[in-house]
Amino acid sequence: MNRVDHIAGHTFHGRKGAIRNAFRYSVDYILLDPESQPNTPTLFSLNRANVTNWRDSDHGGEPRQGRGAAWLRDQFNKMGVTQPDRITLLTQPRVLGHVFNPVSFWFCFDVDDQLYAVVAEVTNTYGTRHSYLCHTPNFAPIQTSDRIVADKLMHVSPFQKIEGSYTFRFDYRQDRVGVWIDYGREGGGLIATLTGRRAPLTDRTILWSLLRRPFGARRAFFLIVWQALKLWVKKARFRPFRTAPVPDHPVSRIREP
């Protein structure tokens, strides 16, 4: 992959349980090989300032202290997982120096270019990060129909408990990408999706995105705050972050069938 792709996508969140809330927003993501030196448009850079950019330090490890793909490979070594032949990262870029990614996805491919693992890198608004290694039994190629389950271990939304599980589904193609997450717990949960078509990132798409969705991920952060206010008005229970344990390991495995 010798280019950076632009994903002009949509995200949907629908709350389950007694207090319902749902929203659908348009979003701008990028898909890139973090270990290559892809061709980039003038308004986008890797590891240096620009109108939009991407930095290794924003991923892999603690926020703003990450090591990018090198971190992921270290984690695979520690867990005894076969190293990927190729990695792509689905994430929001920095826009005017700012970034906030509630979740990014590392897609890992084997020597036959089959998708065999996905690392979901979750970051909450309190600056805590935890990742979930998603794979099928025996790391067989991941199909669109596969449902991969992982126990929830980190405090994300202050309106949800730290219990239950995530069910992931992935659809990775040459022309589009899709992720579906069904968070289930007793009496509630959440359904979240991210879908969009792939196209080369160009200066034109960057400028058009800035016109339609100014401030990039900063916009996403304020939309999260807006939805939180709506839940507060609806009298959803607020759970302070200080009561939540933090996982003592950066990556957790799926729940084995």
UniProtKB/TrEMBL annotation:
Cited Pfam families: DUF1365
Top-level taxon: Bacteria
InterPro entries named in the record: DUF1365
Protein name in UniProt: Cyclopropane-fatty-acyl-phospholipid synthase
Organism: Ruegeria denitrificans
